[in-house]
Backbone:
């Protein structure tokens, strides 16, 4: 059972880590009026995409308490954890472009995922 949990946790982590990591650098000295307008438009897009990110964070909050139950072999928890991580993977794919264009969203995503990863690592260390 421990092997199943570890392989599921590693697969989920790899999927989620692979989706987030884009960064975008801009040179503020070259910014024109047109670029400033595009940034304003992007801020409204960020608001819309932050809803997806909020949903992703809620899924992380649901999955984190399940990690301990999964590590103990609770099959109901395994099923629920699997559903949640599948949803997380889909959302991470949907969020990829938005995260690459928004340092604020990327930081929020990275912070939430890091907490989840640390909890999983703690439980794996106890095995």
Residues:
């Amino acid at each position: 059972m421990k092997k199943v949990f570890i392989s599921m946790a590693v697969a989920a982590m790899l999927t989620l880590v692979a989706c987030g990591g884009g960064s975008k650098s801009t040179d503020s000295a070259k910014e024109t009026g047109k670029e400033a307008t595009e940034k304003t438009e992007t801020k409204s897009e960020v608001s819309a995409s932050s809803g997806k990110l909020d949903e992703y964070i809620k899924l992380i909050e649901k999955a984190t308490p399940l990690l301990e139950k999964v590590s103990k072999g609770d099959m109901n928890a395994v099923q629920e954890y699997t559903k949640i991580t599948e949803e997380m993977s889909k959302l991470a794919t949907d969020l990829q472009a938005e995260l690459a264009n928004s340092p604020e969203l990327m930081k929020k995503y990275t912070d939430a995922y890091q907490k989840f990863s640390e909890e999983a690592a703690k439980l794996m260390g106890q095995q």
